[in-house]
Design goal:
about 0% strand
Length: about 170
Amino acid sequence: MATQSAGVRRMVSAAKARLTVAVDSVGMPGSRRRKRAALAEQHRLSFDLLCKAMADPALAEVLNTYESEIPIDKQRQFLFANALYVNNLHFYRIGALSQAELYGHLRVMCQNKVFREYWDATRHHRKSLPEASEEFILGRMMDDLIQELADSDTDEWWVVGEPPDESA
């Protein structure tokens, strides 16, 4: 019975997500609406896969591409850190956050030791990104932010770093 309830909840949740995308897309120009819907669907699928990997150590092992041995509990933490990071990127990509707002959210995330460990453990993942890609640029912004926070001599972490200027 519990399995049936969980299945029903997943179906209702998926239906709500699709309805939200449909409602949000009404009134947007065609290509922009399709792009936003595609990003939402991609995000949902990626998040579903991450959730499955966090719940099942055998699946988490498939995503273990770290350069050193990482215990399974730490891998699951890294997967969750990735989910948080990707969630913020998704909100930025769909226009729900400006780049300066994204920067603020990332600055908060950088206060967590596990998140910084995740970011360091995945640095080699970002080396293959094209330098002109949005993901490379945002990754570099994150690298710079982490370095600025490490070099800072203030306890007021919320003032460290310069949010991107979006007026240009």
